[in-house]
């Protein structure tokens, strides 16, 4: 079974549009670092909030070596723990949106996707009919996506 790990932003983005279940449909179990869980818990007052401990296919894990955090001082705790756990668990795919974290993930040789990649793969697999409306909904609900990225995603999904 493939090992998949997610950072905070893709989980929150998918929660905002009611599509978190796409992760389960695409990958089965998904690893969530403890720091990511804490970041999401800090948003308990948000309308999209869900208690991740109640979602059986999300596996919350702690890093084994907290000292590893020193290698990623310019990343937030969630991003750092994603990369540390990804290395410790030898994961197959890292789900992350933040540019700096993605750079580190690429340097470390991880396969990488983000929220838009999840939506594109979901459409490709017939799990959703369209991504255009979901991208609009994401931006309306406060997720920043560059116009260039939105345009590229719409083109890749053949929804121009």
Written overview of the protein:
With 160 residues, the protein is mainly alpha-helical. It has a single domain, classed as Rossmann fold. Helices cover 47% and strands 10% of the residues. It contains 8 helices and 5 strands. The strands form 2 sheets. A 3-stranded parallel beta sheet has the order 1-4-5. Helix 3 links the parallel strand 2 and strand 3. Helix 2 packs across helix 6 and helix 3 packs antiparallel against helix 4.
Q: Distance between the terminal alpha carbons, to the nearest Å?
A: 35 Å
CATH topology: Rossmann fold
Tell me, rounded to a whole number, the average pLDDT.
95
CATH class: Alpha Beta
Rg from Cα = 15 Å
Uncertain segments are none
The percent range for strand residues is 5-15%
The H-and-E topology, N to C, reads as EHHEHEHEHEHHH
Query: What is the fourth-level CATH superfamily?
Result: 5'-nuclease
Q: Give the helix proportion (percent range).
A: 40-55%
CATH 2nd-level architecture: 3-Layer(aba) Sandwich
Shape: globular
Q: How many beta strands in the DSSP annotation?
A: 5
Quick one: biggest sheet?
3 strands, parallel
Q: Strand sequence of the main sheet, in spatial order? A: 1-4-5
Count of helix runs: 8
Task: Describe the SSE topology.
Layout: E1 4-6, H1 8-16, H2 21-27, E2 30-33, H3 34-41, E3 58-61, H4 77-89, E4 93-95, H5 99-107, E5 112-113, H6 115-124, H7 132-140, H8 147-156
Task: Write a concise keyword list for the protein shown above.
Rossmann fold, 47% helix, mainly alpha, two-stranded parallel ribbon, 5 strands, 160 residues, globular
